[in-house]
């Protein structure tokens, strides 16, 4: 599975797990030599409340984490992120959104996403509490905003839609000062509903290779700059390039490229991929967009062929490979269709082998058992 591939790729020797994921971690331990599974309960027992001596000094350029991401190839790549990458991301976000003494950030995004990880790291860097949920439940998130003093929450569009549906007509408390929305553009009807209900939406554009946020649109600009992802964070530069690497003027669409201290030094053990992505000092995102005359970014397309459904990247090649591993399937093609709730939904066409057949439900069950 994906977990085994990533543990093997980065050469990890220890897999720390909570109780719900203990069986999955044990499977990886059984598959890979030299990997040890350690439940968090056992880790706590070993520490037993003892103080852990920290390092006197850590170089900012030292590797902090490897976060797996992928493009249209469907093969996960380990984006290396340094201590400085995460620090500058946190500083840029604070300068952009502000930092209040009573801030509490609600984390309901997956922690294996850079967006979820960034919340935890900002909590440590800022010295503010984080309200950590096991997963996304719109009722639980709404309750937490009401009862736990949450001031900032990070979601994707369909999560925000479900929060509003679950909330009904009840207004959000004034203490909620920012709903940070990533994972693709926010649909205009949803923005208008949020504006009408006083929900402070801040649209954002980011990617794993830039340690989360690249640009963010302030809530007061949500309707004035419809479709925009905002301006780049302090310390982050972005420009639009043509196919030859030349900078394009305002209003002209091209590839979004990023430069600054949040940008990854490269992909783990993938020098060719690193060289293709980091060129002339710029991170080439593979995303298409343009800047307006005031420097606001508009993202037109995610990566070519990549499907973004509910903020999750769905890799057509990966789904096609699973379908084609079914004994009844000769060929498969996967594309995304626009969907109001999820942004995009995944559709597949298959060519069966002569003399064989498989029902739609059988193929769906087959995919569910093999895809995350």
Automatic annotation (TrEMBL):
Pfam families found in the cross-reference section: AMP-binding, AMP-binding_C
Domain (AMP-dependent synthetase/ligase) ranges: 2-268
GO biological process terms on file: fatty acid metabolic process; menaquinone biosynthetic process
GO terms for MF: ATP binding; medium-chain fatty acid-CoA ligase activity; o-succinylbenzoate-CoA ligase activity
Keywords: ATP-binding, Ligase, Menaquinone biosynthesis, Nucleotide-binding
Residues covered by the AMP-binding enzyme C-terminal domain: 318-371
The family this protein is said to belong to: Belongs to the ATP-dependent AMP-binding enzyme family.
Name this protein carries in UniProt: AMP-dependent synthetase/ligase domain-containing protein
